[in-house]
Design brief:
5 helices; alpha+beta; 7-stranded mixed β-sheet; Aminopeptidase; binds coenzyme A; globular
Length: 150
């Protein structure tokens, strides 16, 4: 049974590793993954100061999402599902949580800076393309930005 709950600060190292394992499913090489490590690292302080939710199955972490909101625009900061749990509804449930959280904070739109391979998932969830933005990890790389109406 999939259950959602807020992340705990002491889970930061395990969640960092989950994000890295999840990102790697798209087949990136070791140098690329090393370059992503700083951006994907979660700290106890960040978990305490942000809205971070985890999914778990039988007490094991299955995914994580983080959302930030300012005024009427929210940003999906991260959404990562454990590789063994892909395509089992975890991403959808975490995205539903992020949407509800952003809506409750007054947002009407959520922006998503997506991995190119994850963009079809967001389109499936109703997001529309909204240009490209520079990657936060790889100089010179541009990634899709999508816009999800709340
Ligand atoms: C993108 C990601 C979060 C999707 O999570 P998931 O748990 O596999 O997705 P779900 O099982 O909830 O899928 C929901 C729907 O989207 C579809 N879907 C999921 N991934 C898809 C993909 N890569 N391409 C197209 N459709 C996809 C599913 O088939 C399902 O469709 P349905 O409406 O017919 O049921 C997951 O693939 C992931 O963590 N990827 C690696 C890390 C990453 O890139 N994260 C995003 C960073 S921006």
């Amino acid at each position: 049974m999939l259950a959602l709950r807020p992340a705990r600060p002491d889970e930061a190292p395990a969640l960092t590793e989950l994000c890295l394992r999840s990102k790697a499913v798209w087949g990136y090489d070791a140098a690329f993954m090393q370059a992503c490590r700083r951006e994907l690292t979660m700290t106890p302080a960040a978990i305490m100061s942000s809205r971070v939710q985890v999914a778990e199955v039988d007490g094991r972490l299955a995914g994580v999402a983080e959302v930030k909101s300012e005024g009427d625009v929210a940003q999906l900061e991260r959404l990562f599902v454990e590789p063994g749990m892909l395509r089992s509804g975890t991403g959808r449930q975490l995205l539903d949580w992020a949407k509800a959280t952003a809506r409750a904070a007054g947002a009407t739109t959520m922006l998503i800076e997506a991995d190119p391979d994850a963009a079809p998932f967001y389109r499936r969830m109703g997001a529309v393309d909204d240009g490209v933005v520079p990657s936060g990890s790889i100089p010179g790389r541009f990634i899709p930005r999508l816009n999800l109406s709340l």
